[in-house]
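Obj.: predict assembly geometry.
Materials: sequence records (below).
Method: joint structure prediction, all chains together.
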Amino acid sequence: MSMHQGRERLVVVGGDAAGMSAASQARRLKGPEELEIVAFERGHFTSFSACGIPYWVGGAVPERDDLIARTPEEHRARDIDLRLRTEVTELDVAGRRVRARDVESGAESWMSYDKLVIATGARPVRPELPGADAPGVHGVQTLDDGQALIDTLSRAKGRRAVVVGAGYIGVEMAEALIDRGFEVTVVNRGEQPMSTLDPDMGRLVHRAMEGLGITMVNGTEVTKILTGADGRVRAVATQHAEYPADVVVLGIGVRPETALARAAGLPLGAHGGLLTDLAMRVRGHQNIWAGGDCVEVLNLVSGQEQYVPLGTHANKHGQVIGTNAGGGYATFPGVVGTAVSKVCDLEIARTGLREKDARRVGLEFEAVTIESTSRAGYYPGASPMTVKMLAERRTGRLLGVQIVGREGAAKRVDIAAVALTARLTVEQMTALDLGYAPPFSPVWDPVLVAARKAARKVRGS
Amino acid sequence: MSMHQGRERLVVVGGDAAGMSAASQARRLKGPEELEIVAFERGHFTSFSACGIPYWVGGAVPERDDLIARTPEEHRARDIDLRLRTEVTELDVAGRRVRARDVESGAESWMSYDKLVIATGARPVRPELPGADAPGVHGVQTLDDGQALIDTLSRAKGRRAVVVGAGYIGVEMAEALIDRGFEVTVVNRGEQPMSTLDPDMGRLVHRAMEGLGITMVNGTEVTKILTGADGRVRAVATQHAEYPADVVVLGIGVRPETALARAAGLPLGAHGGLLTDLAMRVRGHQNIWAGGDCVEVLNLVSGQEQYVPLGTHANKHGQVIGTNAGGGYATFPGVVGTAVSKVCDLEIARTGLREKDARRVGLEFEAVTIESTSRAGYYPGASPMTVKMLAERRTGRLLGVQIVGREGAAKRVDIAAVALTARLTVEQMTALDLGYAPPFSPVWDPVLVAARKAARKVRGS
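Observations (raw structure tokens):
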């Protein structure tokens, strides 16, 4: 592939999960005498768990460094030439080179590559709001963000926190702030929290969060962030009300960070993420791979590309990219849309399509919802669990599952995740041989109860 | 089908999970004007959870009646003519009738049927040992057994208990006896406890049980149960030693109760269970169904019949039988061999084939074992989890998974249960979109870590 004789150079842009997994895996397959690996990261850290930040802020995870899976030194010890605080400012695809800038000094230089990995991640959505940059307003995407928020929380004069957004980050940050002893208000544009669930399931989350003492404000846009005489945040304003705030956390979500790729003319999808083939190669480019939060992924249920920024996918992408860039062969076939979360002891899980997703791609479906318990009803600690299941009309193919409950609700969704991957019908699912013992499940697992009801509805009896 | 005009009669032999589920489901489909349903049960109870008995004995479940899913009165209120304490003593298949005996009075009479359901369950293996019937020696299959054991435990003069057998019943009873404040010794014929696991995984259970203060004696046959001057048990003898015992619990397992079926010439398999077709009809008999602990089931991984007495299968069988006997259509495609259990906070799970099962059916395989954690390593409460995975040579098809760990180990096996059903390869499994968030899983779920290692071994790289 390469025009060079001898050693090739792999350049990685972005030193987090996808990029550094790719670098590590490529290094596993090819030694430094065959492959030079240079990784550019504009921040201070590599390979950290962004998903863990809410638990660090909340205090469950004691130290920032607990979230770092592999340090820069560990990467360098494996002959990866990692350059921190170095931002790639331009991709020259025709010239097979990138321009890198030292963030401290501003010095720029070009570096050529034989193989390129784009792992530029995501950037948080910052609302175009007056006051959004005021002291006391925080995002939670990076470790620096997390530290800044922790500092604010420690110094805050009052104990009132407002979270803007009620997706995964929003609900997890609500828990973290409760754990830090704050009174929490969540202001949410959607009809219910967790818009990745159907609203009827989101309502269960809403109720449970209110039960935890969180003030939930749904269906409301934030119009302004108000500051006091000291310039710090003092309240969040909506069209109808003002919510006093000593600290504001923005949990509105993220978008793919693809400005570089866009400028270089690389193919982007409808959600703004890079488009790749199954080997995670950027479409049309044999020697460029992309993965993690800057790419779109194929949803195997809808058959369409989707944007799913999630650490577990980023790690898989990195593994696949590193294998291919290292001369092996691997593919990432796609996702089924699994995600799990919790707010205190409430567990929330989803996989596959929501009602509106199914409609959008032309699928007609039956939807059922059942109530069951996490353990045999007579076993101590059995707690309620609600399972919603969607199945395609006529074929009965499973389309999606959403689960809200306490202990054991979240990971139960894995049953459906595998069933979606295997394209099982709900009728087939009724016969699944799932683990049963009274401490772990009723004799009919909640997922089986839902499958039975869905199967009856599909066959109309 | 029937020669009768008008209403047909369905006779059910055995009033536990399979039999009464079948009766209930048939009743749901056909009202009493179309279908008469008569159910014979030789015991005092119907539809109870035998799996729950250890937790009742241990005290976690307070009342016997908590284990009864549906009372005789509830069945009768749904027009099921339930006859307790009535034992069926003969099946006359040619004459389409059964002979029933009132256990109290000894009175016998014949009852004809149009459709018959055999759900005679299992009988516990009682060792042919001197002293096995002595007071203080208990089985734990029925509610009466459980009550008798609880009475013995309450009155016991000492606190030494010996459990014979270290399968599911044995380990669960060991926990129950610890919970009741007994010193527990488990005497086990096998090399390790839990012979449904490979010995290397059984060893982990052995160690954990010892860590709980249980004395484990493996590889040893009980030769005699010794009694004192009062005729009550005083010790359990093996070839090498005597273990003092104030109470002995036999947990050696069960065999299909098929004496009636055998006498009637119905087809039995190699394990002594009835053989059925996929609609749970006894092979060669259009109007006789059988289900629950008296039948053999097809193992979808090995392709051979297996004996798996488990409440969850019994309930599914009953559902399928009742649907078919009620004029509908349903099948039970088979099992993959999933089972979960726990001893205190140690969770044990298995599905598919062990190494010796695979060898027995001619499958060559690669086996891998990995260590991971239940949650992200940095998240509080993360506990170790060991996953063993077997994959077929060449095809890479998943053959089996065994998991031993703490929280979250047991139900994780469901991922593999669905994958086995769908005949996924371990390579396919590496891309499974499983739920990830730090409180629930490392970024690579332990099952994915095992699948990656197995896939590497299958492809030899």
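Conclusions so far: Chain B has three domains: 8-123+255-325, 126-252, 339-456.
To do: check interface contacts against the pulldown list.
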